[in-house]
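Page 47, continued from p. 46.
Same chain as before, 404 aa.
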Amino acid sequence: MDNNFFEALADLGTENSVDAEVVIEKVKSAMQKAAQRMYPDCKECIRVDIDPEKKIFDVVLLQTIVDEEPYNDTEVYIDEARAIDPKAYVGGTLERKLDISKFGRASAQSAKQSIKGDLRDINRDRILEKFDSKVKDIITATVTQVEPGRGSATLMYDKTELYLLRQEQIPGEVLKEGMSIKVYVTDIANRSKKPIIKLSRVHRDLVKRLFELEVPEIYDGTVEVKSISREAGSRSKIAVYSNDPNVDAVGACIGPKRSRISAIVHELNGEKIDIIPYSEDPAEFISRALAPAKVEKVYIIDNGEDAAPEFEGDTRPRGLSAIAVVPHDQLSLAIGNKGQNAKLAAKLTGCKIDIKSDQEEFEIPAPAPKAPAEELFHDEVDEDEVLFAEEDAPAEETPAEDAE
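Result:
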């Protein structure tokens, strides 16, 4: 048999990440079906022999030797059998090697499609089995290629090639071949055909998983992550709470000599992270969330609304808005560059926030009247809507300390 066949066989296994033995079994099955189409009476009388080491690839028709006119292709007359094998005898079996080249183009094409289909199914099942448990978790992959134009990156994880789209990469981050990066698996698409593993480095839960990896107290449940808001590549805010009065939640996240937070910041390409102590008191939580700005007073306004939490375990206040009063010289810091600090605080707390200067006159809206239970309209808080006063605010944000 031509060595090209066995080279193609090996390549087929490598391309589909399937063991050579599995590929051989699928080729045998496909060739057996092709031979059975040519010899429909011989379904049980066809054998396929493949041995890459000995370079053997034979399709064999097993025929019973008879001394009368053969009934069908399962039998062969004794004289014809002895012409092939002089030792043939009546009642014995003749192993007739079939000429694969005579199978015909249709049979060959059918066998090829059958092999490809089988390997595709095996590969799909293997990928689903490997990544089903990784959805909503992070994996560490190696960058193998970056497209110069589009910027999409090819990653390798456990012998599986994955793709990280440009829009799912951290803004400003430059990926290079050989880099080892952590990515968040958001979902698996196209499960019934060729699965697509959807990856992200901008998803906010990437930050949560990184903290779980770096902070044992979060992993074991002593410290709880209550909520996260993120603008990838710029800043994240994470609210944490300790279930043990002897454990400082913020200190646990920072780690000895800032080792834990530094490792996370490094993984996120220098993204700043504010660690906020969570509070059940909405006013106190909002005040802390606007850090690094100092907040003098927070007025909570109950809008009479209710909304479902964004993710399991989310305990942020719902149906509330707030007015936060800050010193005049802290106004730009509270708002942040292009409103970033205020927006992240709103996302973190689940409240619409109106930031006011202590030199500004304003009215506190009366709470919305309570509607009868059957008339309540449930809607989700638009976390991206942040109300703040921009007049009198300086154009640039004042630099502030953060958790790096």
